[in-house]
């Protein structure tokens, strides 16, 4: 295949790990989601169970996704779908831009 970047598993893991670690969206999600489970009677062990269950669910999701994306046939279908999705959302953003300009001109 031409134009495909090849990286080792370790490089891909490090890149993804630091991308998620340094992503402010992840931190904001935990800051807004986790306190819902904290009350004055919450014990450390129950917080650990919540954190562990979130970690297990998240890990399961990513392992399944990685397994599917690792299959060449599935990857080709995903890439084809991604092109259509990029086109669709590109046109959608252009449409919103035109709508904003028209509203500014009209008002």
Describe this entry's structure for a reader:
By secondary structure, the chain is an all-alpha fold. The chain has a domain at 72-107. The chain has helices at residues 9-21, 24-33, 44-69, 72-106. It is flat and about 55 Å long.
- The total strand number stands at 0
Beta-strand percentage range: under 5%
Radius of gyration (Å): 21 Å
End-to-end gap: 52 Å
Unreliable spans are none
Structural class: mainly alpha
Oligomer: single chain
Helix proportion:
over 70%
Rounded mean pLDDT is: 83
Q: Given the C-alpha coordinates, what overall shape results? A: flat
Task: Give me a quick take on this structure.
This protein is mainly alpha-helical.
Which structural traits does this protein have?
4 helices, mainly alpha, flat, 107 residues, 0% strand
Task: Itemize the secondary structure elements and their pairings.
Layout: H1 9-21, H2 24-33, H3 44-69, H4 72-106
């Amino acid at each position: 295949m031409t134009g495909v970047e090849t990286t080792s598993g370790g490089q891909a893991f490090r890149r993804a790990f630091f991308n998620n670690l340094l992503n402010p969206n992840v931190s904001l999600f935990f800051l807004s989601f986790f306190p819902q489970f904290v009350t004055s009677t919450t014990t450390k062990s129950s917080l650990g169970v919540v954190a562990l269950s979130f970690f297990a669910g998240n890990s399961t999701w990513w392992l399944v996704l990685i397994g599917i994306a690792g299959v060449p046939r599935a990857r080709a279908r995903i890439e084809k779908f991604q092109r259509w999705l990029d086109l669709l959302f590109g046109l959608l953003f252009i449409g919103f831009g035109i709508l904003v300009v028209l509203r500014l001109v009209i008002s």
